[in-house]
TrEMBL record:
Keywords: DNA-binding. This is TetR/AcrR family transcriptional regulator. It comes from the Bacteria. The keyword DNA-binding applies. InterPro entries: Homeodomain-like_sf, HTH-type_TetR-like_transc_reg, HTH_TetR, KstR2_TetR_C, Tet_transcr_reg_TetR-rel_C_sf. Residues 34-94 form the HTH tetR-type domain. The keyword DNA-binding applies.
Amino acid sequence: MRSLAKRLLSFTRLVQGVNVSAVTDPLVWEHVQPAAARRLLTGAVDAFAERGYQATTTRDIASRAGMSPAALYVHYPSKERLLFEISLYGHNAALDVLRSADTGPTPADRLRSLVAAFTAWHAQHHTIARVVQYELASLSPEHLAEVATIRRAISAQIEQVLADGVQDGSFDVTDLPGTTLAVLSLSIDVARWYTPHRGDPAALGKLYADLAERMVQA
């Protein structure tokens, strides 16, 4: 465990103090039509990740999309609506990743697969993930409630695997909700500090999978 902790600390120190470039792959939003709406979403992700939601203006977003501020309202009624669309997409994408990764003959195998995939997703899509995970308070109550439903499904995916491991004796977990939160937090926090210049998402996923398994093994 100490060896893993040292590796994690070393990896984290590599990226501390590095300015993360908020570059968004337009292909992520290829389902959004028309193209102008897609450019606005891309610009919003970029701006929110770099400046934060509160410090970002509609002019900032429109400028990144190569459009006038007034053009934004043709496609989205507000800045908050853009944040909601980003949050909805990001949470659904993360949930899909977990559901696809829930494979393996034992709870330990499933947990490792889940954590590795969830961590790698937060690294590979760190710009979107940073907005999705750290701007929730800026959503309207109605939109937050919709996103919260997806977040509960994400938590349930991990909690069920932990419960299965407790049942078969492979995991020693006395607080399922608390441990679920701890496991998820490992992966989610990657979006806060990750930069593509440091480390490989798959390798980071494996490291975090090792940590998660050691946290709960009996």
